[in-house]
Amino acid sequence: MAEIYPGVVEKYREFIQAPMDMEAVTLLEGNTPLIPVPSIANALGGGFELWIKFEGLNPTGSFKDRGMTVAVSEAAHRGAKTVICASTGNTAASAAAYASRAGMNAIVIIPAGKVAAGKLAGAIAYGAQVIQIDGSFDDALNIVLQISEKHPIALVNSLNPYRIQGQKTAAFEICDVLGSAPDWLALPVGNAGNITAYWMGFKEYDQSKKTGLPRILGVQAEGAAPLVTGHPVSQPETIATAIRIGNPARGEEALLAASESKGTIIAVSDKEIISAQRLLASDGIWVEPASAAGIAGLKNQIVGGLIDVSGKRIVVVCTGHGLKDPDIITQDFKKPEVFPADFTRLEDFILNG
User: What is the pLDDT of residue 233?
Assistant: First the structure.
């Protein structure tokens, strides 16, 4: 019988700082593909290797599953019966799925009207209690922090250190596949837990296995770029809903990761993000808008002559599947013409238009 991939806790338990006797609550997350995309590299000028770490192929469709397996496992290990999170969508779906898997309750608080339908549907499907508030993600996070401090309810947002322990395993996987760290890693930045986790993972693997360290390019949306402007954004706005966050919980750690890696954090426009989403789709990879921010940022830096990628090996992280937030695609979709089920008519149309 073929060996079954055990999920990130068992695969990388020696590197995960969690109780050693903790039983893993897993959906066999992780082990996502690192996809070579030479045609996209050529479209960006060529002369370098480009890979997509497609985290949208995790069980609930986003990278959040890596951290959630550890956070929920630890919460269950210490006897918690309920988990809670604030979310712009992906965290809600992931928390609900893993809580359900563990036989726990999940409460998710979301900003009203600011969460993509595909993500909200996931949280509902997995059985979470979904509460919408008339406020921002940052307002929701403040509320769940207060609730978790006052009641025996486990917070599973990225402020939970076990979330970072799980998310850092993506860096391990990249090194395992490539044999070393890439020269550059580009990824979206919202609440800043992921950039923090990747840098932690690369540093730990380098210390243990001498895999080297990448430079990190973090990318925010212009309408939600507090780490670029240098101050919180009270009303963040962007089509990239997953990174529509005005006051990142791990903002200082993200800035430190960029600085230590000799990288940077930049902002790109919604127009650049949508263009990058289409570029990825042209090579068979459909991601939600926020997940295209990494490619958008890389293109921005290459076209602007701000980084030299000649001969480099670059990995771009795509954090969520396109099905999580399909509205941008469907709203511009022209309803197809309906034809009779007639071979001759269809043959003529297909061949002659």
Answer: 96
Mean pLDDT of 291-307: 97
Q: Which two tokens stand for residue 47?
A: 């002369």
Alpha-carbon Rg for the chain in angstroms? 20
Q: Contact at 8 Å (CB) between 162 and 70?
A: yes
pLDDT of residue 2: 65
Task: For residue 246, count other CB atoms closer than 10 A to its CB.
Answer: 18
Decide: pTM greater than 0.70. Answer: yes
Domain 64-160 in the same topology as domain 8-61+163-330: yes
Report domain extents, the chain.
Answer: 8-61+163-330, 64-160
Given CATH 1.10.274.10, say whether it is the number of domain 8-61+163-330.
no
**CA 48, CA 43: separation in Å to the nearest integer?**
11
Per CATH, the number for 64-160 is: 3.40.50.1100
Following DSSP, what letter does each residue of 248-314 receive, concatenated?
-TTHHHHHHHHHHTT-EEEEE-HHHHHHHHHHHHTTT--B-GGGGHHHHHHHHHHHTT-S--TT-EE
